[in-house]
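User: Let's play a game. I give you a shape written as tokens, and you guess the letters that built it. Ready? Here's round one.
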């Protein structure tokens, strides 16, 4: 592990601990406010239905794994079982570690399959898949926020937050379209600027290789765009169905509709994006889901229970990911070290090959 990487992780550790403790406090507060007995009753009603929730959530992992496979360019080929296992292991790291999504989770996924395909090919494909996923997320969230604003009377604070979310997403979509169409290399440009202020040269080499692969995919694989976007749409559809089924079990007095499930899933996406640094979105998910659930005519207890069941689902898949890591004899520290080392070596060698070919 490089000294810089270790220093960065140590620097973020106190923030991760603070966010985790804060999330636990918020979680306890909102659970108590919603009513422990009501939440327990909702979980009891779900019962074996949790197995159905897990099956629906499995679809989400499957479709994004297939989308990742489709983003890998010839001559390389990513097998489904390798993509799925790497995704589960990487997501486990992100869900367990404070700030894990920012530091280890995403780079770890291609590092875990570099014995199957070159690491930079897997990493670039993962970046491309995340771009498609991000496009689907902003479209989905924009639709949900507009539906919430136009269909329900919102408290002033929530209405303002929804309007800000819509405005930010609209700007993001417009900016993304401009960047892709003009192929602006803003990442390598930013790292070059930071290099003059002390950033290691390896990060510039990484960003250049990734940008070249991303824009090359954009030029060479237009026919894959629609299938990949449909797979990302299936991810969101599975999320809507999951919420619908969960509320069907836990809220018999106020049955859900696909429309209310759609709005709640869009709110969940906003919470996930905004609070990715909080492990399992502890506390903030209960607060946001409980508040919006009341607006949609559900009880606050139903919203908090929904958030808790989502956590149980995430914990289940995190346990699966940890078991896969243990089966391979890996630790979180080893995954972080190998991901950083492999990315650096692969980016440097790719940069040398590019220079030799000029």
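Assistant: Ready! My guess for every position:
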């Amino acid at each position: 592990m490089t000294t810089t990487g270790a220093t960065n992780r140590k620097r973020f550790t106190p923030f991760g601990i603070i966010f985790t403790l804060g999330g636990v406090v918020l979680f306890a507060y909102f659970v108590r406010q919603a009513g422990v007995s009501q939440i327990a009753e909702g979980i009891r009603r779900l019962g074996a239905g949790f197995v159905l929730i897990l099956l629906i959530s499995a679809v989400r992992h499957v479709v994004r794994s297939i989308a990742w496979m489709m983003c890998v360019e010839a001559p390389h080929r990513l097998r489904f079982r390798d993509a799925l296992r790497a995704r589960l292991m990487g997501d486990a790291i992100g869900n367990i570690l404070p700030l894990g999504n920012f530091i280890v989770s995403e780079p770890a996924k291609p590092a875990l399959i570099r014995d199957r395909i070159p690491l930079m090919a897997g990493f670039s494909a993962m970046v491309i898949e995340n771009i498609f996923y991000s496009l689907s997320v902003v479209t989905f969230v924009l639709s949900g926020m507009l539906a919430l604003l136009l269909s329900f009377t919102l408290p002033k604070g929530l209405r303002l937050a929804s309007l800000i979310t819509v405005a930010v997403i609209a700007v993001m979509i417009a900016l993304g379209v401009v960047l892709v169409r003009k192929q602006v290399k803003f990442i390598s440009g930013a790292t070059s600027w930071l290099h003059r202020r002390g950033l290691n040269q390896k990060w510039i080499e990484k960003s250049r290789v990734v940008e070249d692969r991303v824009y090359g995919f954009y030029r060479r694989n237009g026919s894959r765009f629609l299938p990949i976007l449909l797979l990302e749409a299936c991810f969101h559809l599975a999320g809507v169905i999951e919420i619908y089924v969960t509320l069907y079990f836990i809220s018999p007095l106020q049955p859900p509709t696909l429309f209310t499930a759609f709005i709640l899933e869009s709110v969940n996406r906003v919470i996930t994006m905004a609070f990715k640094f909080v492990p399992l979105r502890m506390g903030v998910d209960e607060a946001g889901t409980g508040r919006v659930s009341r607006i949609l005519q559900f009880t606050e207890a139903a919203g908090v229970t929904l958030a808790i069941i989502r956590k149980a689902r995430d914990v289940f898949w995190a346990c699966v990911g940890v078991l896969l890591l243990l089966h391979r004899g890996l630790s979180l520290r080893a995954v972080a070290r190998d991901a950083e080392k492999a990315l650096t070596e692969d980016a440097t060698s790719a940069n040398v090959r590019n220079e030799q070919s000029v």
